Request: fold
Amino acid sequence: MRPEPPRDPDAEQEVELGRYWSAIVARWWLPILGIVAGAIIGILVQVGSSQTWTATAEVYLGQPLGANGSAAVTPASTSLGLVSNFVTSEKTIKDAAARAGLRPGRLRGHITTKPILGVTGTKVGTTAPLLDITVQGSSAGKIAAAANALADAVVTYVSSYSTSKLQALKDEIAYDAAQLITLNAHLDAARASQEQALHDKSLNTTERLVAVANLNSVIALALQQQNTLEQDRFMARQDLAQAQYIEQGHIVAQAVPTRVAAPSKRAGAAIGAFIGLILGLVAALFWDPVARRLKAHPAGH
Reply:
């Protein structure tokens, strides 16, 4: 017996490709139908899809300084990672959703945070980062309200240290002001007594000079105390301004809704037509095998 000639893989591949092509040509109307149907469905999907909005609030996380303002400190609350986790925590989402009039499910998975580094801090080598908080959804006003609610929550979260420092500085300024009022009253009384001593006819010259000298010492000491209190109040006011505008976190920009550009009807039709073409080609390839199987095993047998 003569040995069988070896199979030619290339020839077999050409046969298979030819078979596929013949199946597609025989059922040419299926890919055409898929293109038309897909394009129509793509257009309808674009027409029926709801409008999407985004709203971004920008928050300054603050740069807390030490008690004397000489060195930056980094409390855990200002860590970007912790702040991002705080924004997407369940309690924060529920609180923001309640303020915005949304269900929490409308916010879950629709909140993104993006740190913006490079804002120069008050000391060399430090940075005071900004954080963008973006919310996406279908209701323009409510997502903006949610983004602003999240920003408010972040400011409260990161400002615990600076808020405590601010209160201490305000207390110091109030104390200095009260002391100055009391001291000024003593000064007025001492000056009045000095004026009275100068014109008191019941005292001789020596007694008047002694009384005036004593009152001069009291007035000089009071003026020195007044100067110290004024300087302390001036420094406290400077520290207060620094704590308010540099150390404490605050909202830089309120969230404003922005319409997200949706894909055009033409793009939707193109995508739908492409998907329809693929499905039509698959249907053409499997039409004959499926039809033969159905004939061989009719329904009910």
